[in-house]
Amino acid sequence: MQPYRSTDMWEADVRVKGRNAALARWAYLVMFAALMASAAGTLARAENHDCGESPDPSSYVAQSGDTEDAQHITMERSFAGQGRLDLDVCSGELHIKRGHGERLTLRIETASNPDLKMRAYVKTLDVAGDHATISLQFPHKVHAVVVLELPSTTSLKSEINLGAGKFYLDADGIKGDREVNLGAGDAYLTMADDRGYASFEANVGMGSFHDHRPGGRNSHFIISCNYQGKGNGSLQVNVGASSIDIDPARGGTI
Prior knowledge:
The structure is a single chain. The chain is mostly beta strands. The chain has one domain (17-247). The protein has one helix and 13 strands; from the N terminus they run βαββββββββββββ. Strands 1, 2, 3, 4, 5, 6, 7, 8, 9, 10, 11, 12 and 13 form a 13-stranded mixed β-sheet that branches. The longest helix is centred in the N-terminal third of the chain and has 30 residues, at 18-47. Mean pLDDT is 85; it is low at 5-18, 21-26 and 44-49.
């Protein structure tokens, strides 16, 4: 298998001179400052319990089939996966997986009882037609584990934002154009090879990048990597502080 083609602005084999080098360094420092500012803000809010205490008013409306108890809530909606997904999670452990059929399934479990009912922290669950909007505000202290299962279609455009925590993405199973923004924490991507994307961009403001695929590389400190693949769609993963880890077999356990 041929090594993955990538470019890393901080590798020695990338050489630009004179004015181009200065401009490249300046642009990268601006990106680094923005990522670090985002990470500091989101992490501070989560750890200071400003994340969901008290939560914003919820627009969630329970439907037939939704279940809830003191530490669990499960919701399922019809969703063909042909349009757009906007997902915002303040704090916790987030898993994005391939589901079954034309259904969107959201499962949330907390390690301890929150102060309010579980539904109070589901700020938005709006799934209508080709657009799904989800916003969750579980407090950092309850250690929420969120699992979202989606249809696998190349026409889905996803923007996923996690303030602070751990993020797991089945990048081979979830297709389309995918943008992931993690303020502070670790992002784990399951990718067997380069057939899950046409382009893949990974940025870390401060931390590390580990690609465990054959021919992959490790990088540290400030990272910006670009890959070209044999598949469809784009994948962009931005982490303010901590790490991105690519594993052919990693799926994460609940």
